Every structure is written in structure tokens, then in C-alpha cells.
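[Automated response] Your request has been received and processed.

Submitted sequence:
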Amino acid sequence: MTIDRGNRPGEDALRSVYRLALIVVGVYLLVILWGSWVRISGSGAGCGDHWPLCNGVVVPQEVGQKTYIEFAHRVSSALAGFLGLALFVVAFRRLPPGHRARKAAATQFVFLIIEALLGRMLVKRGLVVDDDSVERAVVMGLHLVNTYLLIAWTVLCALWSRGPLTRAPDDVAPGGTPGVPGLGALWAIALVIVLMSVTGAVTALGDTIFPPHLRPSGGFMERLKDLFSPGEHFLVRMLVLHPIIAVAGSIAMATLVWRFRRGIVGGPVRLLGWTIAIQLVFGLINVLLKAPGWAQLVHLLLAEVIWAVFVVIASGARDERRILASH
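Generated structure:
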């Protein structure tokens, strides 16, 4: 049965949307990582300036390594697109009008379309391989912000198809509970994560165009001078700026959420705290190893995990506030 009486979704409908949403989140993450490998390997022009075709054809006949990498990314992106569309269709067919998981499925599909258009812009405008323009950095930043919104709404679709956070009325303290972050804290954390991630994306671009092993060696204080040198390329400056923002932002984030580790969102909060710590350690490893490709991918994956866990915390806090408002 698709929809039970009372215009509420049945368990089978919720379960189908939940499972599909989890699959879609996993596929989106894999596509994001492969897209980063396209940049790292310098394969962004592997299909020329054609989009969505590859070198003017559906399936390229003469496939070099860079063409293979870029074409594989095109294929995986198409698969992700079909899965995102499937989530949209399944949610609208199996959930009643007004259900928040249905709205989340529709919203993620909108950001999926924007994601494809931004990818097309990178290819058609030649913002790939060795292009070191401000335009490329800006489009990459927008690409990352849209990716985060895409992941967020897909995660929310999965969460909300599991139903709202529930607590017994006796567990709700009169006047509220300190167990969840407030709206201000949530917005602050979201902005910190986005700022760290955008500067990280631009830094990764700098590591690709100005490889660490080709840059002059020197200590941190010597590299800090690059930040204030008018003759340095802005991407080189970002290589110094991002670690500073990442450390400061991580400390601020941990400070904002750690006091809620014993509340109703305590599990995700503790996971977020540990993931932030691991990310900081791995960021240091990434710098010491001079940003090898595999380390960049792990660094990106940890950033995506931090964002997804934050979305879970924000959703739990939202549900908790609704419960408090109803008692």
C-alpha cells in the first residue's frame, strides 16, 4: 500500500524513499570525488569543449587516459542525474502532498540541474586544466556551494522519510532544553563550513596549477609572506590562507557544538567533533606530503562527511524545537 489512511505515508512508502535517498547520497559523493580526480589529473579538457557529448560524439572512439577519465566522469554524472530524477519521481508518487521528504526530493533535483549547468559552464568556457583565472575560482566556489546544497537536501530527504524526531512528553523539560543548538549557532556553523570548504576548493585548484614540489621550499613564516606579497598569484596566497581559516573555523565549530554532546543530538555532535579532529590531522598530513592526489580526495571526503553530519544535527535541532513548541 502506497499511502495509508489519514493521508499519511505507509511504512513501505517511507522505506522505499529512505533507501533510495541513501543510495543517491552515496552516488553523489562518488561523483564528487571523481570530479575532483578529473581536476587533479588535468583531464578537464579530455572531451574538448563539447558538452554533454565527448569530443563531438556520444562515445569517443580513440580514448586516451585523460579522455577516459573525463568521459567516465560524464557517464557517472549521467547516472547520478537519473538517480536524482528517480528519487524525485518516487517521492512524488509514494508520498502525499505536503510531506517534507517530498519537498526535499524536489529541491535536491533543482540543485542537481544547477550542478549540471555549472559543470557545463566550466567546460564550455574552458575553465579547466591550467586556467588560473579568477572566473574559474569563482565558478568552482559556486559549484562547491551548490554541491553542498545538493547533498544537504538529499540527506534531508533520507532523514525526513524516516519520520520526525520523537520524544515522550515527559522527557521535554518545561521552558525548553539546552540539548540542541539554537538557530544562530546553526547558521554560524553552516557559514564556517562553507567558508572553509570554498577556500579549500580554491586551494586545491592552486595545488593543481602550482604544484607544491615546484614551489620554493620554506617554513610557514616564509610562506606567510606570500599572503601579503602583491606580486604573488591569488591562488598562491590562498594556499597560505586556507590552513589558517581551517584551523580557526574548526576550533570555532567544535566550541559551538561540543556543549550539546549530551543532548538529543549528542550522537551526531560527537561524530562531528571527532571528524573535525581527524580532518585537521589529515589536513596537516596533506600539507606535509605536498598534497598528493589521494590525500586531496580523502580530505574532500572528510569535508563532505562533516557537512552531512552537520545537516543531521540541524535537522534534529529543528525537530526538537518543534516538539518544545507543541508542549
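Summary generated for your ticket: DSSP finds nine helices and two strands in the chain. The two ends are 33 Å apart (CA to CA).
If you did not submit this request, please reply to this message.
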